[in-house]
Amino acid sequence: EVQLVESGGGLVQPGRSLKLSCAASGFTYSNYVMAWVRQAPTKGLEWVASISTGGGNTYYRDSVKGRFTISRDNAKNTLYLQIDSLRSEDTATYYCAKDTGANYFDYWGQGVMVTVSS
Amino acid sequence: DIRMTQSPASLSASLGETVNIECLASEDIYSDLAWYQQKPGKSPQLLIYNANSLQNGVPSRFSGSGSGTQYSLKINSLQSEDVATYFCQQYNNYPWTFGGGTKLELK
User: Fold this and answer.
1) Separation between Cα atoms, residue B7 and residue B24, nearest integer Å
2) What pLDDT does A59 receive?
3) What's the whole-number mean pLDDT along residues B81-97?
4) Are A98 and A24 within 8 A, CB to CB?
5) Cβ contact A59–B94 (<8 Å)
6) What pLDDT score was predicted for residue A92?
7) Rounded Cα–Cα distance for residues A71 and A58 (Å)
8) Distance from the CA of A20 to the CA of which of A101, A113, A114, B18 falls in 20 to 30 A?
9) Pairing relation of β-strands B33-38 and B53-54?
10) Preceding omega of B95 cis (within 30 degrees of 0)
11) What residues of chain A lie within 8 A of the CB of B45, using their CB?
12) How far is B102 from A86, CA to CA, in rounded Å?
């Protein structure tokens, strides 16, 4: 059974940093592109970043470029999202998602909440 | 960025009814479209990919259609467990973008 379990969220002050983790199991993690998708409270879904199977290629939406860093450790079956210079508009539930290989997502984690507030 | 416009934003329907949700892309996305279902308090689940292919395990009352810029999700014989918010997603061009969602409730 595929499982994606996020952790690392919480209440953070504007300008601070946070690192989210996603532990994957139930599939050959190193064979799949992985992504982060976020959802602001009562809002829609927003793709944030994706990373290639080996980690050598990363892709970001423009609004997070330079502040967010996606990475992966294939030995630990874990995906990460480093978020720097947090802003109020980053407040959202962050989902880890498994890419099918065709750029849509067949498995999602339960999500982790990030709240940016002073 | 490709803009995805969903309609309606909310919908109320009766059990057993047929429901249609539309998704309009701002440019041709060549059927690179997925539909997701998100139940309250849960994470999204993939229903349809490539505009009309049913994901394994999804009930056959769900179907997708469309091409070019216009796509739709159809739910036949609405069940109580279908109460959810539905999102479309294009994956033809970065950044991948989602529609604003359609909230489906029971009448």
Assistant:
1) 8
2) 97
3) 97
4) yes
5) yes
6) 98
7) 8
8) A101
9) unpaired
10) yes
11) 108
12) 30
Residue A50: list chain B partners with CB under 8 A. Answer: 96
Q: Are A34 and A96 in contact (CB under 8 A)?
A: yes
User: What integer is the mean pLDDT of B98-106?
Assistant: 97
The torsion defined by the Cα of A16, A112, A29 and B98, in degrees rounded to 10, comes to -100
Residue type, B34: A
Q: Do B87 and A44 touch (CB under 8 A)?
A: yes
Quick one: tokens of A13?
């002050």
Interface of A with B in 2-41 (CB under 8 A): none
pLDDT of residue A42: 86
Which regions of chain A are under pLDDT 70?
Answer: none
Q: What does the block give as tokens for A8?
A: 């690392």
Alpha carbon A11 to its chain's center: 17
In whole angstroms, give the CA distance from residue B55 to residue B64.
11
Considering only the beta carbons, identify the residue of B89, B99, B100 that sits closest to A104: B89
Task: Give the minimum alpha-carbon distance from A38 to chain B in angstroms, rounded to a whole number.
Answer: 11
